[in-house]
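Input chain follows. Return structure tokens only.
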Amino acid sequence: MQSENGTGLMRAGVESGVAAALACYGLWGAFPLLFKMVADVAPIDVIAHRTIWSLAFVALVVLVSRRFAEVRAALANPRTALVLLASSTLLAVNWLVFVWAVGAGRVLETSFGYFINPLVYVLLGTLFLGERHNSTQALSIGIAVLAVAVQGWSLGGLPWVSLALAVSFGLYGYVRKIAPVAAAPGFLAETLIMLPLALGWLFYVGQRDGLVHFAEPELVWLIVIGPATGAALIFFTHAAQRLRLTTLGIFQYLAPSLQFLTAVFIFDEPLDAVRLVSFSLIWLSLIIFTWDSWRRQRAALPAAAG
């Protein structure tokens, strides 16, 4: 009976993890639609509002879960505070590039950037954590590099939007990995670090131009962006705690796939033959990478059981 109860609890945990992963990556995939609603607002203004309303939402979550002590402890520790300063800077850069790209009609490039992201993690692991990649992973990285080159040729230069998003979020993931603070308290600490700049910028804009962004429906969408950002992070943490990394890694392709479909079929962004080749290459790279991860996970199970 105990075994059956344990199996039932495990199955329920996995099912809730799958639901959370779908919610998380579904939200991230829908972000271009959300940010398109504030496309007429300057990107830096959007980031200022995003910081304020994200902070309000995550502060409520931390308050309910009674975890403010973790936030205070993190900010009181000089090393942890410095790490969080770095992660908040990377997050702000990632947000700014993404918001600008959506407003500029370059959602295909954001999609491409987040398709690259898993392979950036592999490179960062090699460079900073001493991780070694096998020949299959090296092949997938090589194909990804070729995809970037083809994309750059299509654009007439480096695909800087894609690379900036992939590298900034990859570095953000690495920095948060070494920060000894949980997701929600850590995100609250990051937004607290960004808050003075956000308030200062909006005060400056208000002094210069008068009250801006406070008319319906503009303000409504700017406020909605905050809880959407915080909710996606909370769903992600829930999923990460209940699913194997290999399983979670497969779900992470949902967001850029939704962004790709949104760009092509809703925003009517051009998808020429060369760009399609670059996307096909990155998809091939990810298929090889995912297959190799799944194969190594399967091989590790008997050893763990023994």
